[in-house]
Amino acid sequence: MFCISAQHWLESDTGNVIVVHCFSGYTRSTVFLSCFLAFRGMYSSPVDALHRVCDSVGIDDIKAIVPSQRRYLGYFQQCQQGLS
Questions:
Q1: Which backbone phi and psi does 83 adopt, to 5 degrees?
Q2: Does residue 44 contact residue 83 with C-beta atoms inside 8 Å?
Q3: I need a labelling partner for 31 at 20 to 30 A (CA). Which of 14, 37, 50, 78 fits?
Q4: What is the pLDDT of residue 64?
Q5: Averaged over 14-20, what is the pLDDT?
């Protein structure tokens, strides 16, 4: 739902931007951004996007992203491929 809402917001006006933040740390924001970039077609999968997002913010995705968040990236990719 976040990806769809963000997509609609960006499409509604060329001046609109999205600001993403976490209250504690950065991993949830990183996971969302990875999914959103894949949703927008900028990367073939959220995992590919994750590497780019982590490089951009200077974090080690192996150490920072916990197993449940990695599973979520896989679930998101399955949803993109039509699985429920």
A1: -85, 150
A2: no
A3: 14
A4: 86
A5: 94
